[in-house]
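REQUEST FORM: STRUCTURE PREDICTION
Request ID: SP-0412
Submitted by: Lab K.M.
Chain count: 1
Length (residues): 178
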Amino acid sequence: MARASDHYALALIGVDRPGIVASITGALAALGCNLEDVSTSLLRGHFAMVLEFSAPPDAGFAEIRGELLERSAALDLHLEVWRLTDRDARGSATHVLTVHGPDQLGILATIAETLAARGANIREMTCAREAGERPTYAVTMEVEVPAAVAGPLEGELRRAAEGLRLRLALEPIEQHVL
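STATUS: Completed
RESULT:
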């Protein structure tokens, strides 16, 4: 098992094109690095990827970073890599929150502030603006909600959503044990 100092994070963004994932993950594999967590998204024609990986104890940070920067430059990507010193993979999503309605400033800020005030943690999130005559905004989140605040939090979220003329649903996730 790798030490915390052998763990790294990578974030990149650039105009979407075939081969981005192949190039970056190929470089990591060639360096003996193991992917541990990956998230990708397409943001209005830009490909974004954030990942965590572990490296062999004898791998040098400068070598890893240099190879990844070289690969990303060839694809005209903006990339950064950094060493992770603290790792805490505890917890998991307990609820799915969806919000939808007319696009306006402050939707995500209002929902996120309401969640944070009750100690709820956003674990995954997708937001999208649909253009048109009447633009709409949709948010889907996987949220870790402390059991003691689930009821009051739902009421507070509903009041915040109503104030913004949004539809909101907060559904518990059934936890399955394998």
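NOTES: Strands lie at 7-15, 34-43, 46-54, 78-84, 95-102, 121-130, 136-144, 167-172.
Reviewed by: T.R.
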